[in-house]
Amino acid sequence: MRKDVWLFFFAVSIFALQSCKFNPETPETKVDGREIPIDSTVSADQEIENFIAPFKKHLNETLDNPLAYNPSVLSKGEKGMNTGIGNLMADIVIEQSNPVFENRTGNSIDFILLNYGGIRAELNKGDITTRDAYNMMPFENQIVIAELSGKKVKELLSYLENGKSAHPVSGIKIKMDKDYHITEASVNGKPINEAQNYFVATSDYLQQGGDSMNFFKDPINLYNIDYKLRNAIIDYFEKIDTIAAKQDDRFIKE
């Protein structure tokens, strides 16, 4: 915003605040209010409709422009401890954010943990658009990397045991028995070491304790790479031709 415009609005705001100051000589005024429902009985204002029409057209063209092709439906409703769409989202986070993290810190992300409930829509077969990315991730969540102790990672594994849900992961391999007890867990082919620290990428919502992921709170270090999860998804779709995602053995119950 130009400086002169900003100063104008600032002056108007000061004037309005001054005008609102209490004056004991000002007579009291009774104000009545009523609720006006906004529903189908309220007709559109054609002048406003005409004004926003070109903006609406441009927005829809941008949202519906094909970015990639999806050969089969991807839904989080698949049975098991991992889903194709969850694997896709976790893999996107590590592929898109790790180069940024490496450039800024010299470190690499060890693994990813997102939440099952964070996937808000399936991906249909066919062309995938920016609108699909917004439907899949409608929130303004940022990607953050939490440096966790090995002990905190063990708490993370306990959370997964208790949750019994297909939370999206990448970079970590987990096996459970029939009672959901974790029998194996490894990162980079090595068992979790309580004496080692791990760089775990997630969303800022989860890092702050969302979905009761309290093990993310108070990490050794926290890195915000200024990258929204949804933007990472869009960037990934823009650079590929065909989506390749499926269930695999990264998180299984034997």
TrEMBL record:
Pfam family, one: 5_nucleotid_C
Gene3D superfamilies in the record: 5'-Nucleotidase, C-terminal domain
Domain of life: Bacteria
Residue ranges annotated for the 5'-Nucleotidase C-terminal domain, each copy included: 80-217
InterPro entries attached to this UniProt entry: 5'-Nucleotdase_C, 5'-Nucleotdase_C_sf, 5_nucleotidase/apyrase
Protein name as catalogued: 5'-nucleotidase C-terminal domain-containing protein
